[in-house]
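# nightly structure sweep
# worker-07 picked up a monomer target from the shared queue
# config: single-sequence mode, recycle default, output format = structure tokens
# input follows
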Amino acid sequence: MLGSASASAGVRAAAIAVLVLPALAAPARAAEPAVSAPSASIGSRFYAGLDVASLHVDDSYGGVGFSGSTTGAGLFGGFWVNDRLSVELEYEWIDALDLHDIAGSGITHFDINSQRDTVSVSVLRQVVLKDFFNFKRDWRVYGMLGVYESDIHRTVTDLGSSAQISAADNSSGVLAAAGVLYKVGRFELRGYLRGWGDVREVGAGAQIRF
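# output follows
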């Protein structure tokens, strides 16, 4: 877990680098085949959508590790730099882990409720399979690399004394994902595997290009 000001500054610096990367990659666009070039209208390059996911979370409190599975949902939006490269921003909220009778140090046992919300910014690069195979439908695969920052709120109940403690934490670092996308006009469906920090998730989403 990274909670220091320097860690947050590092995330902001990495986010700036993520946003600058597509601009540096723009000269290479001319060499790519124009499968479905975006409209000249800037507005038509924006997209937005939502996703749902099943997540596995590895966490710790007071030096004691614990893990569990939960679900989450996210809202995201992005801008297509070209037909294969976009910059994406997402806010994701995760159902709280609610774990009971966790063995702590000595004879201590506790219950814990751990809730987190995450903001991420990423670059998404996709490959159009029609460029390589004789597919009639527009299937694509993509990779994603970015940075994230999570706010974590834990409520810990000591089962011996019934004392309850609330603690806030922060986590930040690198996010990576891979997935498949199916495109039908302005609408796109996607499934993905994503990992960030101590979280691994499998999800699906739907998006629309404006």
